[in-house]
Amino acid sequence: MLSPDRGRKVTGFRHSRQRFCSIFHPNQSKISRLTLNFGVYLRNFKIIALATLTLISQKGGVGKSTIAVNLSYSLARRGWRVLLIDADLQGGVGFSLTEKSKDAEGFYDLLFDEGSLSVENTIIDTKQPGLSLITKGTKSVADRFISGDWGETPLSDRIGRLEHRLSELDFDLILFDGPCGINPVSMALSVVSDSLLVPQQPSPLCLRSLPQILRMVAGARSADRGDSKRVPNLAGFVLSMADPDDPSNLDDQREFRDLLPVEMVLETVISIQRDFLEASRIGVPVAMLRDRPSASSLIFDQLAAELEPRLSLLEEEETFSETQGNYARLVD
Ligand SMILES: Nc1ncnc2c1ncn2[C@@H]1O[C@H](COP(=O)(O)OP(=O)(O)OP(=O)(O)O)[C@@H](O)[C@H]1O
Ligand SMILES: [Mg+2]
């Protein structure tokens, strides 16, 4: 099995706005750190556009919301300005980060809004500098959504309109925690996002249903998006809730890596940790569970470091666009 921390070391450094930690490859040089700072600089001066990432999976309960909360927290600690949006009616993300989430207007209110609700008014700042949140929204609008009363405007148009409004905000990354499974909201979000991250639990059910998510990603990449030439990139599959002590789970992990192009499965593996469950019960990112971040929470720093170039937050060290070509041949 690939060990999550294999070949990496923890390094601390500063940047102009706040102190943050990172995990680098041992061979990563000062130049790479400069690249990170330079990336932050370019975004600060709006030379690089805001990026959007959506977490999707074909199966529910694979750790999407857990990854969304903890990855956003790590990215914010690394200096990026992150807006985490809870696009799941279950509201797991909001619950995990703020008690204000229950009554706040949020994602579904914005979807149904006809222009009276300002996006800025739905943004909630968290205790972590650089990390803000839009919750799922109010109960009445959620009920309206569940009853299928979406009005005249198709859902995909509503999501496209909302994405346009969000693109004017001053963030580096907008991260959508997609709803459970493949459904109209996750599909519409996939079409308008720059990148997709697909958590997969090493299990026979996830393996069997893998073609479904590949078809969904292919559909998002080939969807008609009007004048926009942007096509969503697959940032990667991330193995989540893996059990390193279970031989059949290790077999499933190997099978995922055998089935998919090697560069499409992230090196970072999120294993099952009691800490994560405890953190989500209390309502904090796992790094905030103790006075000092536990070793298990560092996995999200590693995930953030691995994703930065894939989300175009950083300049690429390897030619990742070439790997996108391989992927396109597999599913397009
Ligand atoms: N790596 C992990 N170790 C232990 N528990 C985890 C881990 N990841 C997630 N969990 C727990 O598993 C449950 C489901 O996780 P989570 O809500 O993140 O999944 P999800 O994919 O967002 O689910 P849904 O599809 O319903 O939105 C939660 O109780 C969460 O705390
Ligand atoms: Mg969820």
Give a nutshell description of this structure.
With 332 residues, the chain is an alpha/beta fold.
What does this structure look like?
The chain is an alpha/beta fold and 332 residues long. 41% of the residues lie in helices and 17% in strands. It has helices at 30-44, 64-77, 92-97, 107-112, 139-146, 155-166, 184-192, 204-208, 210-222, 247-259, 274-282, 298-310, 320-331; strands at 9-14, 19-24, 51-55, 82-86, 124-125, 131-134, 173-177, 195-200, 233-242, 265-271. Helix 10 (247-259) links the parallel strand 9 (233-242) and strand 10 (265-271). The radius of gyration is 19 Å and the shape is globular.
Layout of helices and strands:
Layout: E1 9-14, E2 19-24, H1 30-44, E3 51-55, H2 64-77, E4 82-86, H3 92-97, H4 107-112, E5 124-125, E6 131-134, H5 139-146, H6 155-166, E7 173-177, H7 184-192, E8 195-200, H8 204-208, H9 210-222, E9 233-242, H10 247-259, E10 265-271, H11 274-282, H12 298-310, H13 320-331
Parallel strand pairs: 3-7, 3-8, 4-6, 4-7, 8-9, 9-10
Antiparallel strand pairs: 1-2, 5-6
Helix pairs in contact: 2-12, 6-7, 7-9
Magnesium ion (MG) binds next to helix 2.
